[in-house]
Amino acid sequence: MLELGKRQTLVVKRTAPQGIYLGPADTDEAVLLPKAEVPAGTRRGDALEVFLYKDAQARPIATRRMPAFSVGEAAVLPVASVTKAGAFLKWGLMKDLYLPRREMTRPLEVGETVAVLLTVDRTERLCATMKFYSHLSSEAPYQEDDDVSGYLYEIRENLGGLVAVDGKYHGLIPEREMLPGLLTGTEVSCRVAGVRRDGKLVLSLRQRAAAQRGSDAAVILEALRKAGGTLPVGDHTDPEEIRARFFMSKAGFKRALGMLYKEGKIVFTDDGIALTEEKK
Question: Which among 161, 177, 204 is the end of a domain?
Fold first, then answer.
């Protein structure tokens, strides 16, 4: 079966002046691979890996150029042009990928990159969408503490960051876990902090507690060294100031401070914290 928007291995059915026709070995279906892309010495019955899309005349056609992704997958692509109808994205083929305006979640500019999902619309045309939510599954094969990656495709106030895990599954980074400056279109590596009853994944940008404590402690030590050995922060410091300064929660900050104090690397002062003499 010929599948639009998919990588497929097809066999040569026949030749023609404009190229060769390829199709599944067990059907009569066939699609043109233009002459310019036919490997030298190709014969009837040979197998070739190709990608199927539609040309400017909306005709199915095969190419040996492999784009960034297939139907149902996600990728971050550069914007080639923007029109009243939508945008066109570079994705590895001569014909740019169409992103209809109705599938955009925000205005785009030429040159920026955007996270999109490849879909087939109602007219059987390949197009991109920034609206991941309705295309994602809640049946991810992951469990708590698994490491995953995905695309941050939307940030919602008072909720957090929506992530397409593997480009396929629902994921959420709660607002309290979001890092300053994190932008949509970013590929993120996360830890599964939990799996909701509906199957959607709750994600964290932080490591498991023991490993994260060590990472947080290293961040604090480096900040102390850069500041000359003292910092005006401690248990009294506002959580938002800690997040802005160290990119960590107040609870994580306190755990790291406790670790550094027990190891004799810092001391607490009236004004905050300081490196011990041997650590300066």
Answer: 204
Q: What is the pLDDT of residues 65-96, one digit of tens each?
A: 999 889 988 888 999 999 999 999 999 998 89
Q: Give residue-wise pLDDT tens across range 17-38.
A: 999 999 998 888 999 999 999 9
What HEC string does the chain produce?
Answer: CCCCCCEEEEEEEEEECCEEEEECCCCCCCEEEEHHHCCCCCCCCCEEEEEEEECCCCCEEEECCCCCCCCCCEEEEEEEEECCCEEEECCCCCCCEEEEHHHCCCCCCCCCEEEEEEEECCCCCEEEECCCHHHCECCCCCCCCCEEEEEEEEEECCCEEEEEECCCEEEEEEHHHCCCCCCCCCEEEEEEEEECCCCCEEEECCCCHHHHHHHHHHHHHHHHHHCCCEECCCCCCCHHHHHHHHCCCHHHHHHHHHHHHHCCCEEECCCCEEECHHHC
Model-level pTM? 0.67
Is residue 155 over pLDDT 70?
yes
Domain count, the chain: 4
- What CATH number corresponds to the domain at position 19? 2.40.50.140
Is residue 209 scored above 90 in pLDDT? no
